[in-house]
């Protein structure tokens, strides 16, 4: 493996933490003997072009510095290749890093861990989801949660989990369950009025909401959490339990497991890794071992 690696930096992640995180992460990697090149794009499209060029050029690793959105962008460059992905998690949610057991908002420690993983060849293959031509590592959200995501992304204040908590309260005022058509592994169509349907490659989104708490990153399957037709009062009781994953035993919640999931619902947007995919219908497929990640 080449000793030259690439830091893929989002300078705006975590309200500026991305820019500040790059330096201590790079220092830790250089101290370990690696040659570090920093890559920053003019915008997302330009950044992805540069990341793909670095992968095609044989970089020893692509290290995403930012939040889940930056990791999602990096996945588009490394998925299906031999280039390993490292994560310096300094964003708002950092759910992919948490799923991998990586340090969060500790860039120097994360940089040291990446260096140790590279030297010790501690590289793990994990699954990814693929929907509408894009890879994702955490959860495809639709329904109430995608509306919360949309509102949360527009909010400049506050940061972290509190932002999503406030977005939940705002969306509760107007949201109504919608009719879904859900197809699992080409089986019979499930027709249900649902508050949300979440397709989890890993367990959490929104900075630690464990919507698909039982999801495993390397089992070749999604966990599909369906929250049925809930009143506002019920949703207010159930949703706080998402942070511990105890919502899954509520009678309005069902969980399915499948390698392919098709969702259709009117006026509903899908989000994956917190990034908009587009309006439903969407089909997601779990791709086993799609990316090689550096970590414990």
UniProtKB/TrEMBL annotation:
InterPro entries the UniProt entry points to: ATP-NAD_kinase_N, Diacylglycerol/lipid_kinase, Diacylglycerol_kinase_cat_dom, Lipid_Phosphate_FormReg, NAD/diacylglycerol_kinase_sf, YegS/DAGK_C
GO MF term (any one): ATP binding
Coiled-coil blocks: none
PROSITE patterns (UniProt xref): DAGK
Cofactor(s) this protein cannot do without: Mg(2+)
GO cellular component, one term: plasma membrane
Residue ranges occupied by any DAGKc domain in the UniProt entry: 1-135
Gene Ontology annotations of biological process type: phospholipid biosynthetic process
Keywords tagged on the record: ATP-binding, Kinase, Lipid biosynthesis, Lipid metabolism, Magnesium, Metal-binding, Nucleotide-binding, Phospholipid biosynthesis, Phospholipid metabolism, Transferase
Short name of one Pfam family: DAGK_cat
PANTHER family: LIPID KINASE YEGS, SPHINGOSINE KINASE
Family to which the UniProt record says this protein belongs: Belongs to the diacylglycerol/lipid kinase family.
Protein name: Diacylglycerol kinase
Annotated source species: Streptomyces boluensis
């Amino acid at each position: 493996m080449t000793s030259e690696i690439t830091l893929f930096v989002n300078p705006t992640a975590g309200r500026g933490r991305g820019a500040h995180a790059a330096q201590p992460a790079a220092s830790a990697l250089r101290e370990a003997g690696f040659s570090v090149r920093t890559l920053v794009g003019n915008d997302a499209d330009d950044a992805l072009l540069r990341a793909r060029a670095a992968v095609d050029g044989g970089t020893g690793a692509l290290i995403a510095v930012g939040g889940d959105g930056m990791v999602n962008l990096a996945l588009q460059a490394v998925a299906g290749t031999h280039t390993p992905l490292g994560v310096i998690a300094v964003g708002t949610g950092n759910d992919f890093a948490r799923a991998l057991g990586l340090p969060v908002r500790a860039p120097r420690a994360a940089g040291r861990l990446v260096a140790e993983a590279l030297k010790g060849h501690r590289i793990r293959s994990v699954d990814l989801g693929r929907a509408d031509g894009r890879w994702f590592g955490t959860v495809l959200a639709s329904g109430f949660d995608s509306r919360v995501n949309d509102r949360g992304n527009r909010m400049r204040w506050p940061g972290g989990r509190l932002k999503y908590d406030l977005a939940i309260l705002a969306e509760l005022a107007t949201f109504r369950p919608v009719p879904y058509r859900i197809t699992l592994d080409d089986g019979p169509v499930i027709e249900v009025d649902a508050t949300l349907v979440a397709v989890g490659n890993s367990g959490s989104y929104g900075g630690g909401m464990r919507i698909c708490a039982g999801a495993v990153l390397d089992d070749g399957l999604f966990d599909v959490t369906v929250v049925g037709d809930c009143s506002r009062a019920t949703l207010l009781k159930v949703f706080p339990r998402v942070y511990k994953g105890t919502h899954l035993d509520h009678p309005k919640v069902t969980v399915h497991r499948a390698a392919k999931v098709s969702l259709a619902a009117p006026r509903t947007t899908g989000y994956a890794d917190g990034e908009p995919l587009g309006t439903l219908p969407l089909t997601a497929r779990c791709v086993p071992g799609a990316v090689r990640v550096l970590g414990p």
